[in-house]
Each structure stands twice: as C-alpha cells, then as structure tokens.
Amino acid sequence: MTTIARGTDTLTRDALTVLQPGFTGTTAPDWLLRRLGEGLASVGLFGRNIVSPDQLASLTAQLRAERPEVLVAIDEEGGDVTRLEARSGSSFPGNHALGAVDDVELTHAVARELGRRLAECGVRLNWAPSADVNSNPGNPVIGVRSFGADTGLVARHTAAYVTGLQSAGVAACTKHFPGHGDTSVDSHHALPRIDVPADVLHARELAPFRAALAAGTRAVMSAHILVPALDPDRPATLSRPVLTDLLRGELGYQGLIVTDGMEMRAVSGTYGIEHGSVLAVAAGADAICVGGGLADDETVRRLRDALVAAVRSGELPEERLADAARRVRELAEWSAGTAGKDFAPDAEVGLRAARRALVVTGGESFTPFTEAPYVAAFTPVANIAVGDETPWGVAAELARLLPGTLTGSFTGESAGADALAAAGERRVVAVVRDEHRHPWMSEALTTLLTARPDTVVVEMGVPQAPPRGLLHLATHGAARVCGRAAAEVVAGA
Question: Where are the alpha helices (DSSP H) in 67-205?
C-alpha cells in the first residue's frame, strides 16, 4: 500500500521527485521506502543491488508496494556495461559489436530482448543506449560502448535500439548528450572538453541524437563535458544553452532529461553535488541521477534541501522545478501503463549477434586446439562505467570446451615475460583489450609473439591495432557471449 507522508509540502515533494538515487543492498532500505512515501518517484539500480532475476523482481515489487508508479531505472547497456549480469558477464554483446555487424534488425532484436528481461524484472527505464560517435580512438570511457566511429552507422543503430527497447515497454535514455565520443578524458575523473566548431558538432555528434528523438526516445541523458562552441563556461549538464536552447528549443525534444551521475568528478569536483544539482535543474535537467558512489539517505536529504533552498532564495525558479517534477511523473505513468507486454523470448539472440560480430584474421594454417591452453589476459584498469567486478575474457568459455584450461592476468612492463613463464609448454591464447591505447600491452604482446609465434590473439576492445598472431579474433567487446564466440573458434566448436 502506498504511504504518502502528510504535511509534506509541494515544493519539498517536487524536490524529491526529481531525484534518482541509488542505495546499497538487495532489498530496499527503510529510508528509501520512507522517501517514496514523501514524494520520491524514481530509483536507480546498480550491480550491487542484483543477485538474480527473481531477487530483482522481488526488489522492484517491494518498491512498487510502497509507490505503484515508481520509476525503476538501471544502467544496463549490455556488453561491457552490465548490471543484470555483473557477476557473470552479459548475455548480449554491446554496441560496438552490433555496429560491426551493421544489421539494424539485429540491433532492434537484441534491444527488444534485453528490454523484455528488464521489464520482466520490473525495471522500466534503461540508461541506454550510448549514442556517442567514437571519433577519438583513444577515448578512455566510451570505446566499445559506442556503435562506432561513423556518424550514419551510429545514428541508425541508436534509433533501432531505442525502438527495440521501448517495444518491450522499457523507456530508453539516450546518452551522453551532446556527445561524449571525441574526448580523451573520462568524466568520472575530470572534465572533458570537446573543441570542435559548431557545424562539426551538428553534423557529427548531434546526428544520432536527432535519430533517437525521431524514434521517440523517452529520455535523454546529459554529458559532463565542456563544449565551448555551445557554452564556453559550463559543462553540458549544467548548461542552459545546451539543455534548454539546443535540446528543447532547436531539436524540439519534450521528454525527460536525466543527468549523468552527479558525483562524477567532472561536476562534483568543481561545483559540488548540491550546487551542481541546482544548476542542472535550472539549466533544464528534470532528473538528478546520483547513487553510483553516494547511495544513502543523507545524500537524498542534502540534494532535496539544496533544491528547496535554491527555490526559496530565487536561484531556481519554482516553476522550473515543478516542470521537472511533472516530466518525471509523466514518464513514471507511461512506464506503469506499459506493464504486461508479452511476447516470446529470444534467448539466443545475444549469442547469435556475438558470433556475427566476430572478425577472424589470419589462421590459414590454424588448427583448432584439442588440448587445454594457457590464457594470458593482459588486463588494463577498468573504467568506472564498466567496473572491475564483471568478469571478461575467454578463459571461462575455453575451460568449458577444453577442460583443464589455465589462465592468469598480467599487467605492466613485465607482463609479456611473466605470461611466457606462466604458460610453460602450453599453447597460448593472449587476450587484450584496446591494445592501441596501452603501450605496455602492445610490448607484452610483442614479447609473447616473438617467443611463441603460434599464439592466438583475442582483441576484446576496439580493434584499432594491426592484427597479429597466428590467428587474430576481434570480438568488438568483452561480454560473456563475445568470449564464447571467440572460444568456439579456438576450440573448433
């Protein structure tokens, strides 16, 4: 039964309504349930909140028992960024693999099945897809999360993803507006800057967002990036010229605008989360995403009070906060109205897509392995969006096909020599991730291939480096199904 706290004034309720907080644990804490009764309208979920589909369904049912129309959101891109399967790796390849196949019907089918699984668990808003054009191959945070570097390809697959996801009754949240692809800095750590003329932005970065808007995306997520051609002073999340003048005005978008995580250093390091949240809503944002790092009642209280104080001081117009709250409630009502969609599952669509995305180079003299190999994973530091809790590579899938497979993780200047010593006499499968971005990784692979030219190389990031090894497999992502597709080739399965 919904409990509405009596005496909670409209201003305070609106301030709570625009927040999308996270929490710790696999059941809803008492403070979160209380805030739902006081006006909180949406909740964000992360990998730490999920153990299994049944547990997730019980959690969302617990939230809806307190507020039936609560908007439950998740950061489930599939591929490298997965929360549903954070402990095992995703059953779906990510955007880069889908872009490599370039079959919009397949992208639609993958997004639809992912949406079906989310809806089945009670999740109705997905902070996906990434519509960023990965024009900078050195980008440390987007990479395989992008459909690719070609604007037209990214636009058509963004639209297919949006329609596929929403056909399952899950609202898409297209990100990271106005485009995070041409950056060399991770906004989790600092403020990226894109210094290109406005005409380039409109032709390249904005095209996929126009496609998403035309496809009916229910939400758009802002980026914590500085784009001087649009606003020389403030990052997009805090910029009225970007969110109101461009997105609302020029592009005509009327749906929900969600911020990227406000505790990310690109905003919090300069403005703080309280002042940053006030500036974001004043700029045109409707929902404040927080909870990836700060996930407690104190954070909710601080942000609520900051918004209320800003209205009372005149810094934030009350009508702007009311309008933001209205948009959150409208999406919550839409999502509640889509419940109950039923269509046949397609459990194998992710694996089919991963197999089609696999690019095989060389191997004219390659004979599939019949004995258990040694898998040397050259492991870079994972970016925060991906996280380091999700397993990646091919070792687990090879062990299933070739029992007795051994593996180790290596990094740094001695990685190549260390891998050689660990492998002994076994055949070697070297697994890399964005070799082109990590000189130590490239050197390690050279050391390994010089000593063991029969090594098979599996690239699970963006395949920018020249293919090397007796056999080179580019998976275009590190999802579990991508690892399985590569393992099947190595083992001849």
Answer: 95-101, 104-120, 151-167, 198-200
**325 within 8 A of 18, measured Cβ to Cβ:** yes
Q: Are 281 and 321 in contact, with CB atoms under 8 Å apart?
A: yes
- Spatial separation of the C-alpha atoms in residues 34 and 30, rounded to whole Å: 6
Active site residue: 188, 224, 472, 476, which one? Answer: 188
> Roughly how many angstroms between the first and final C-alpha of the chain, as a whole number?
53
Is the peptide bond preceding residue 129 cis, with omega within 30 degrees of 0? yes
Distance CA 29, CA 244 (A): 36
Helix (H) or strand (E) holding 78: none
Taking the C-alpha atoms of residue 488 and residue 190, their distance in angstroms, rounded to an integer, is 40
Digit-coded pLDDT (tens) for 150-178? 999 999 999 999 999 999 999 999 999 99
At residue 60, φ and ψ (nearest 5 deg) are -65, -30
Taking phi over 0 as left and psi of -120 to 50 as alpha, with beta for the rest, 345 belongs to: beta
Is 238:283 a contact under the CB 8 Å cutoff?
yes
pLDDT at 183: 76
Q: Are 432 and 459 in contact (CB under 8 A)?
A: yes
Distance CA 143, CA 94 (A): 10
Kindly report, residue by residue over 343-360, the tens digit of the pLDDT: 889 999 999 999 999 999
275 is an active site residue: no
**Does the annotation count 472 as an active-site position?**
no
* Annotated catalytic residue within 182, 260, 418, 434: 260
